[in-house]
C-alpha cells in the first residue's frame, strides 16, 4: 500500500513540475534568453513567442555574416545564397529541436508517468530532465567540432580561410552540430532511464499496452526529427559548393547515433516487457504451487484449475518480448535514408559526373 501511495505522489509531483515548466531544455533556455532581450527592447509586458526568438537568432547570424562580408570585400551571388539558406536552416533546426523536446515532455507528463506502478526509476528520469537544460556541454562539443573542421577538413585555413559568409554561417552550423550530438546522446539515454521504471503492462499481452505504444511513438518522432536536422547540415554543403572525400568524415558517422538510438530503444522496451512477463509468470507459478497437493492426487476441480493456470502460463510465456515489427524496421530505414538522400542531393553534380550523366 505504501509503495502504491509513494508511486502516486512521486508521479504527481513530477507531472506538476513538468506542467509548471520547471524543467526546460537547452533550446528553451536559449530561446527564453533571447525572448527576454526582445521583450526589453520592445518594452512589452510579455516575452515573444519562441518562433520569434528563433527567427531573431537566424536573422542576427545572417546579418552578421552579411555585414562582415561587406566590410571585407563584398558579397558574391553564392554568398547571398549561403547567408539566406544558412539562416533558414538555423531557424528550422531551432524549431524542430524545440518541438522534439516539447513533445517528449508532454508524452512523459500525460502518458508515461501515469503508466508507472512504483517509484523505481523516477530518480533517473529526474536526472535526465536536469541534464536536458545544460547548455555548456553541447556548446563545448560544438567548439571542438569546429576546431576539427578547421584542422582536418578546411584547406589552408590561415592563408586561404575562404569566404567570410561561409565562415560565419558555417561556424554557427558546426556549433549547432555540437548541440545536436548532445541531444541525440540525451535521447539515447532516455530509453535506458525508462527501462529502469516499472510500468503497468497487460499480463496477457504486454506488447499491446498503450504506454509502450506512446513510448515507441515518442522515440520514433525524435528519430525522424534528428534525421531531418542531420540532413539540413548536409544540405548546407549545396551553398558552399565544395565537395571533398574527406567531408565524408562528417557524413557517414551521422548514421551512428540514429542506429544507437534505435538499438538502445528496442533493448530498453524489450527489457521492460521481459521483466513484466517474468513477474506475471511468477504470480501464476505461485498460484499453481499453492493448489498442487504434496501427496494425494488433486481433485477434479483443482486439476482443472491447474490445467487452466498452466495453459495461461504458456500463453504469457509465448507472447512477444519486443514491439519491433515490419513498420518499426521501415521507420528505422527511413531515418537512415534521410541524411543519405540529403548528402546525395547536396553533391548531385559530383555524383552525376562520376556516373557520366549530364544535368
Give a quick summary of the entry.
76% of the residues lie in helices and 0% in strands.
Structure description:
With 359 residues, the chain is mainly alpha-helical. The chain is 76% helix and 0% strand. Helix 4 (77-112) runs parallel beside helix 7 and helix 8 (210-235) runs antiparallel to helix 11. The longest helix has 37 residues, at 255-291. The model has no long low-confidence stretch (mean pLDDT 83).
Number of strands: 0
Structural class: mainly alpha
DSSP strand content:
under 5%
The coarse overall form would be: elongated
Radius of gyration: 26 Å
Q: What string gives the helices and strands in order?
A: HHHHHHHHHHHHHH
Average of the residue pLDDT scores? 83
Query: What's the N-to-C terminus distance?
Result: 72 Å
Poorly predicted segments: none
Put simply, the count of helices is 14
Largest sheet: none
State the helicity in percent bands: over 70%
Amino acid at each position: 500500500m505504501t509503495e502504491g501511495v509513494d508511486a502516486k505522489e512521486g508521479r504527481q509531483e513530477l507531472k506538476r513540475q513538468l506542467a509548471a515548466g520547471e524543467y526546460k531544455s537547452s533550446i528553451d533556455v536559449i530561446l527564453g534568453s533571447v525572448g527576454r532581450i526582445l521583450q526589453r527592447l520592445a518594452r512589452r509586458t510579455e516575452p515573444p513567442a519562441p518562433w520569434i526568438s528563433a527567427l531573431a537568432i537566424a536573422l542576427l547570424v545572417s546579418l552578421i555574416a552579411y555585414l562582415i562580408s561587406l566590410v571585407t570585400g563584398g558579397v558574391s551571388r553564392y554568398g547571398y545564397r549561403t547567408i539566406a539558406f544558412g539562416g533558414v536552416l538555423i531557424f528550422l533546426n531551432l524549431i524542430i529541436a524545440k518541438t522534439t523536446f516539447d513533445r517528449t515532455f508532454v508524452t512523459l507528463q500525460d502518458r508515461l508517468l501515469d503508466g508507472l506502478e512504483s517509484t523505481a526509476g523516477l530518480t533517473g528520469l529526474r536526472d535526465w530532465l536536469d541534464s536536458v537544460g545544460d547548455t555548456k556541454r553541447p556548446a563545448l562539443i560544438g567548439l571542438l567540432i569546429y576546431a576539427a573542421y578547421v584542422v582536418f577538413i578546411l584547406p589552408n585555413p590561415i592563408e586561404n580561410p575562404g569566404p567570410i559568409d561561409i565562415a560565419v554561417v558555417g561556424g554557427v552550423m558546426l556549433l549547432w552540430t555540437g548541440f545536436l550530438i548532445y541531444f541525440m546522446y540525451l535521447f539515447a539515454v532516455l530509453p535506458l532511464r525508462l527501462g529502469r521504471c516499472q510500468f503497468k503492462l497487460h499480463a496477457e499481452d504486454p506488447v499491446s499496452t498503450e504506454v509502450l505504444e506512446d513510448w515507441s511513438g515518442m522515440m520514433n518522432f525524435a528519430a525522424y526529427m534528428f534525421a531531418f536536422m542531420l540532413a539540413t547540415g548536409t544540405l548546407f554543403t549545396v551553398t558552399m559548393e565544395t565537395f571533398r572525400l574527406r567531408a565524408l568524415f562528417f557524413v557517414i558517422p551521422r548514421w551512428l547515433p540514429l542506429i544507437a538510438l534505435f538499438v538502445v530503444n528496442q533493448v530498453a522496451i524489450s527489457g521492460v516487457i521481459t521483466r513484466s512477463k517474468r513477474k506475471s509468470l511468477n504470480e501464476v507459478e505461485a498460484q499453481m504451487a499453492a493448489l498442487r497437493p504434496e501427496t494425494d492426487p488433486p481433485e477434479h476441480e483443482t486439476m482443472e484449475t491447474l490445467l487452466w493456470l498452466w495453459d495461461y502460463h504458456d500463453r504469457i510465456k509465448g507472447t512477444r518480448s519486443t514491439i519491433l515489427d515490419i513498420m518499426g524496421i521501415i521507420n528505422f530505414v527511413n531515418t537512415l535514408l534521410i541524411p543519405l538522400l540529403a548528402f546525395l542531393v547536396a553533391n548531385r553534380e559530383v555524383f552525376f559526373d562520376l556516373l557520366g550523366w549530364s544535368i
